[in-house]
UniProtKB/TrEMBL annotation:
Stated name of the protein: medium-chain acyl-CoA ligase
Keyword flag Ion transport: no
A GO biological-process term: acyl-CoA metabolic process
Molecular function, one GO term: fatty-acyl-CoA synthase activity
The organism of origin for this protein: Onychorhynchus coronatus (Royal flycatcher)
Catalytic activity: a medium-chain fatty acid + ATP + CoA = a medium-chain fatty acyl-CoA + AMP + diphosphate
Protein's UniProt keywords contain Ribonucleoprotein: no
Length: 188
């Protein structure tokens, strides 16, 4: 029994509760600590290695020009571990530290997101439309120790760095180099 509301079918509250109860009856063991990168991504990678699952892309990105990046679960796991090492070692971040990523949705955005999950670093996403004033506000409010951005947005970040007392490292995603910035591609 579903109720139609403006042409859309809605579940009644009793149905939602009974569905929830049916899920709870399985009594699945829940892990004390759950980490998507190690508990899901690495598990799928191992299943593919063992031949128990067919190899499928874990990540598939295509831009407007038709360039594409396709990573298997194994590749995404490997690259995210390398990115996690960059964040932990080169940037000096630890579990609970915050990193702001002001990037367009390039493959590195997802890679860094998984790397942060892997290490317990808090990933704070920001749109590439942020102004210098917006970036400064986010740096101060979050107390971020690292910022990651593209070479085109780096000048806006540099203009507010003197007012960002918590910021310890700056990571650039791009081909070029910039004084005072670490380059993600080189470090990977």
């Amino acid at each position: 029994p579903c109720r139609s509301f403006h042409g859309y079918t809605r579940l009644l509250t009793s149905q939602i509760i009974s569905h929830y109860d049916s899920i709870n009856q399985y009594k699945k063991e829940l892990p004390k600590y759950f980490n998507f990168a190690s508990d899901v991504l690495d598990e799928w990678s191992q299943l593919e290695k063992d031949g128990r699952k067919p190899a499928n892309p874990a990540f598939w990105w295509v831009n407007e020009e038709g360039e594409e990046v396709k990573w298997s679960f194994e590749e995404l796991g490997f690259l995210s571990r390398k990115a996690a090492n960059v964040l932990s070692e080169a940037c000096g971040l630890q579990r609970g530290d915050r990193v702001i990523a002001v990037l367009p949705r390039v493959p590195e955005w997802w890679l860094l997101n998984v790397a942060c999950m892997r290490t317990g670093i808090v990933f704070v996403p920001g749109t590439s439309q942020l102004t210098a004033k917006d970036i400064l506000y986010r740096l101060q409010a979050s107390k971020a120790k690292c910022i990651i951005t593209s070479d085109t947005l780096a000048p806006a970040v540099e203009s507010v760095v003197p007012d960002s007392q918590f910021l310890k490292s700056k990571l650039i995603v791009g081909k070029g180099s910039r004084d005072g910035w670490l380059n993600l591609k080189e470090l990977l």
